[in-house]
């Protein structure tokens, strides 16, 4: 029978189908963080229920944690309270808790793959929209609300209507300096932020096959920003190689058994999708956003589009440009940059720091730029040191902070001041996302690095060319 990858994984997890209603799905892995879990645990307490599968549940602190002096007590009272609540809840239910300072601590979507919690063919949920990241391994992974977190804690199941299937195929190869982040921003700019609403996306084609696991995670992470329920990529040798030997991955006979199953995880050649979309890799250039949603992006050498050429109302478009203090027709190149943020579950992995270092090596941070370089986890932080990247960064005048979500959503002290411009490797550029009045330009680690050393929006290709010249 011809089945999609998505159907194979979904159908094998259905515990019960409700006619004309949602399916009840078994959940293999449940990731928990401090923001969306307190009320869920309270619900369990009120009903005197224990977590059904603590060994399938993993808790970390990431959203409102400081990125400096993590060894000291957390100053902000609300953050301190949320962190303490998670620690106590985890202890009460026998759930592993990787709090501040723990070697496995980090952003929930970075530590899952890093520790082998994320595996092909699994169902993975978290009270967090960017759970889609884990789809890079051929898992069905999606964000859930707090009441659903409670449901999964209590039953290890969730009720979900089955989404439709979309496949986005990108063939060919990518141009110089075009990274997975650019591919994702390009797709969203073409589809808009609601273009995949109601769908679960499979990414296929040469461009994704050639991507590293880190790159695939970046792409799947951003699926949610075009409205998709999630995104996934069929596992291949690269996936298996990445997972093998990680702490929570299957071992010995269990590994062999898992591999037999994982190798079947691909869409059949004649599988039918509800919607198919095709792009060419060579059409993509380094991207940057100019507006207040992730779909408002252009190639870095381009100009801000005229309102008449974009979808949606002109008044919303103008409101967005007013917030950014940009004008239709402006060139993106040369725009002043005050802050640079490298980090988040989109681009806070080791490969992103390697990419950033490629450009800053032998250069200096621009004097007027404040740069926050925040690893996605302690393991990433450690790799940055071990690989000598920290030396490159330090020599160029940068400083490394401690892991967490940080300026991605500014729930801690890392807030971009009102009116300032930040080139950010994160995933959302909504009004006030990085601090009240802050203006965000989403881009890749390469574009962020180019901005950090020149102090303005700069095409990274011009700097890379100088190196090879
Ligand atoms: C705080 C959390 C619920 C939220 C999410 O769901 O995505 C956050 O991670 C974000 O990126 O906005
Ligand atoms: S890094 Fe940003 S997008 Fe990712 S989980 Fe944290 S706040 Fe959400």
UniProtKB/TrEMBL annotation:
Q: Which CDD domains match?
A: IPMI
Every Aconitase/3-isopropylmalate dehydratase large subunit alpha/beta/alpha domain range: 7-455
Under Pfam families, the record lists: Aconitase (PF00330)
Where is [4Fe-4S] cluster bound in this sequence? 345, 405, 408
Cofactor binding notes: Binds 1 [4Fe-4S] cluster per subunit.
GO molecular function terms listed in the Swiss-Prot or TrEMBL record: 3-isopropylmalate dehydratase activity; 4 iron, 4 sulfur cluster binding; metal ion binding
Q: What GO biological process terms does the UniProt entry carry, in alphabetical order?
A: L-leucine biosynthetic process
- Read off the Gene3D superfamilies from this record: Aconitase, domain 3
The catalytic activity, as recorded, is: (2R,3S)-3-isopropylmalate = (2S)-2-isopropylmalate
Write the Enzyme Commission number(s) for this entry.
4.2.1.33
Could you tell me which InterPro entries the record lists for this protein? 3-IsopropMal_deHydase_lsu, Acnase/IPM_dHydase_lsu_aba_1/3, Acoase/IPM_deHydtase_lsu_aba, Aconitase_4Fe-4S_BS, Aconitase_4Fe-4S_dom, IPM_dehydratase_rel_enz, IPMI_cat
Which keywords accompany this UniProt record?
4Fe-4S, Amino-acid biosynthesis, Branched-chain amino acid biosynthesis, Iron, Iron-sulfur, Leucine biosynthesis, Lyase, Metal-binding
Domain of life assignment: Bacteria
Summary of the function given for this chain in its UniProt record: Catalyzes the isomerization between 2-isopropylmalate and 3-isopropylmalate, via the formation of 2-isopropylmaleate.
Annotated family: Belongs to the aconitase/IPM isomerase family. LeuC type 1 subfamily.
Give the record's subunit note: Heterodimer of LeuC and LeuD.
PANTHER family from the entry? 3-ISOPROPYLMALATE DEHYDRATASE, HOMOACONITASE, MITOCHONDRIAL-RELATED
Could you tell me which HAMAP family the record lists for this protein? LeuC_type1
Q: What is this protein called?
A: 3-isopropylmalate dehydratase large subunit
Organism the protein comes from: Robiginitalea myxolifaciens
């Amino acid at each position: 029978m011809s089945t999609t990858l998505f159907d194979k994984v979904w159908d094998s997890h259905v515990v019960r189908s409700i006619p004309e209603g949602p399916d009840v799905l078994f959940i293999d892995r449940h990731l928990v963080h401090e923001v969306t879990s307190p009320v869920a645990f309270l619900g369990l307490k009120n009903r005197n229920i224990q977590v059904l599968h603590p060994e399938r549940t993993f808790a970390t602190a990431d959203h409102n944690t400081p990125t400096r002096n993590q060894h000291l007590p957390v100053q902000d009272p609300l953050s301190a309270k949320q962190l303490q609540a998670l620690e106590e809840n985890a202890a009460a239910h026998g759930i592993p808790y990787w709090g501040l300072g723990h070697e496995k601590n980090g952003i929930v979507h970075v530590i899952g793959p890093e520790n082998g919690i994320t595996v092909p063919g699994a169902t993975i949920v978290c009270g967090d929209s960017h759970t889609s990241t884990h789809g890079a391994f051929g898992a069905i992974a999606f964000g859930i609300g707090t009441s659903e977190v409670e449901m999964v804690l209590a039953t290890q199941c969730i009720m979900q209507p089955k989404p439709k299937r979309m496949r986005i195929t990108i063939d060919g190869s990518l141009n110089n300096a075009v990274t997975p982040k650019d591919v994702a921003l390009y797709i969203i700019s073409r589809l808009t932020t609601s273009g995949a609403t109601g769908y679960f996306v499979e990414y296929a084609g040469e461009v994704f096959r050639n991507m590293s696991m880190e790159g695939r995670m970046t792409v799947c992470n951003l699926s949610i920003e075009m409205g998709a329920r999630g995104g996934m990529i069929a596992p291949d040798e690269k996936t298996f190689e990445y997972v093998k030997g990680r702490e929570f991955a299957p071992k010995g006979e269990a590994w062999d058994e898992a591999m037999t199953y994982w190798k079947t995880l691909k869409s059949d050649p004649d599988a039918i999708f509800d919607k198919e979309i095709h792009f060419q890799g060579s059409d993509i250039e380094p991207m940057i956003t100019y507006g207040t949603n992730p779909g408002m992006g252009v190639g870095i050498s381009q100009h801000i589009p005229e309102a008449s050429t974009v979808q949606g109302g002109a008044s919303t478009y103008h409101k967005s440009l007013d917030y950014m203090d940009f004008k239709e027709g402006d060139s993106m190149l040369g725009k002043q940059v005050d802050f640079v943020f490298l980090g988040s579950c989109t681009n806070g992995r080791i490969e992103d720091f390697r990419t950033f270092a490629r450009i800053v090596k032998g250069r200096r941070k621009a004097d007027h730029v404040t740069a926050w370089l925040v690893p996605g986890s302690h393991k990433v932080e450690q790799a940055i040191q071990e690989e000598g990247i920290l030396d490159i960064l330090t020599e160029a005048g940068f400083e490394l902070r401690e892991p967490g979500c940080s300026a991605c959503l500014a729930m801690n002290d890392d807030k971009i001041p009102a009116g300032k411009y930040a080139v950010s490797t994160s995933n959302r550029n909504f009004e006030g996302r990085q601090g009240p009045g802050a203006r965000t330009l989403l881009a890749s680690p390469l574009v962020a690095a180019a901005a950090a050393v020149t102090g303005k929006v700069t095409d990274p290709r011009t700097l890379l060319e100088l190196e090879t010249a």
